[in-house]
Amino acid sequence: MESKKRVTYILHDIAVGGVEVAFISALPALHKKYHLQVIVLGTVNDSMVAHLSAEEKQVFTAFDYPLFLYPVILPKILRKVSEHRPDLLICSLWRASMVGTLVKLGNSRVKFYSFNHSTRFPHFFSSFFTRMAAKTADVILTDGIATSNFVQEKLRPKAPVKIVSFLTQKAPEKITSNIPKPDESVRFMFLGRINKVKNLPLMVSVIETLRGMSIPATLDIYGRNDGDGQEAIERISQANLQEHIRFMGEVPSSQRSDLFHRYHFYLQLSSFEGMAMSVAEAMQHGLVCVVSPVGEIVHYARDMESAIFINIFDEAVWKNDIGKISEVIANPNTYLRISTKCHKNFLSREEYKDSLIEQLEA
Known about the structure:
Layout: E1 6-11, H1 18-33, E2 35-40, H2 46-49, H3 54-57, E3 60-62, H4 70-84, E4 88-92, H5 94-106, E5 111-116, H6 124-136, E6 139-142, H7 145-155, E7 161-163, E8 186-191, H8 200-212, E9 217-222, H9 229-238, E10 245-249, H10 256-260, E11 265-268, H11 277-284, E12 288-291, H12 297-300, E13 308-309, H13 315-330, H14 332-345, H15 352-360
Helix pairs in contact: 1-15, 5-6, 8-9, 13-14
């Protein structure tokens, strides 16, 4: 019998976020197929791994240290990876890229996969270590066409660039579109990290504008406060929307799918994105998504065909775009058409676990 390959997967926190949710969805399959080691450069959220078996949970080793201690702690991390003797090394995000580059430089035998998830660098360290990994890696993995194009144009790697599907589950074969009824609130939801990139204050402005048009819109926000919570709270208070916009906290990955059926619209107005996995998940379930057309979104959605696009960069067209939402609310047939189309677009897409293993076995 052929022995299992030894795989080390390095990423940041295990928390609510596209990268982490996708990884957790694939962990059982990876654990079954490989001798798996997972290095977490931060914390492991217990609710995110609660559904895993005791054996699956044992693959995690967390190194929760601030960046300024990395010169001291890096040898310990590298030693832990070396003890596993990986054949394949997968590194997601910039701190993991830093570790992966050092591992590869010390051991040319390991096959290094650098995983990229964004169409921009949020800061210097991200740029520096992502570029270093691109020069060192054997394969560059990306989460979609937009990220793939960014990597090839900005990083110019010699290694091949491969796209991995970031869908955590198959789309349901059938959906029941949740068309807004005239006698009920129009329910919007957001699911993801609460940080500046997601532009929560702008989302508050959408709800404020719709309510000013006599549309009883509400918004439930799911996710961890990652830097923009207070600004959003202040904007909600300024607009006097405390009764209509709620912070619902984090949601375990196993419960994400159940949320989409409770709402009429998904709302996300990011400044930039990679895959925008929560948007894709919502579309899989036929939830009409109101989104800024950034990152991979423009490759899997079309305005007023399978989503509603809001231009957040041009105030002159902002209100016109908000008007598209009211148009869809007022026309059940339009809502049904968009809902059906977005679900159909994802009906035959591959899951992350299968797509990733396919690349690792190529």
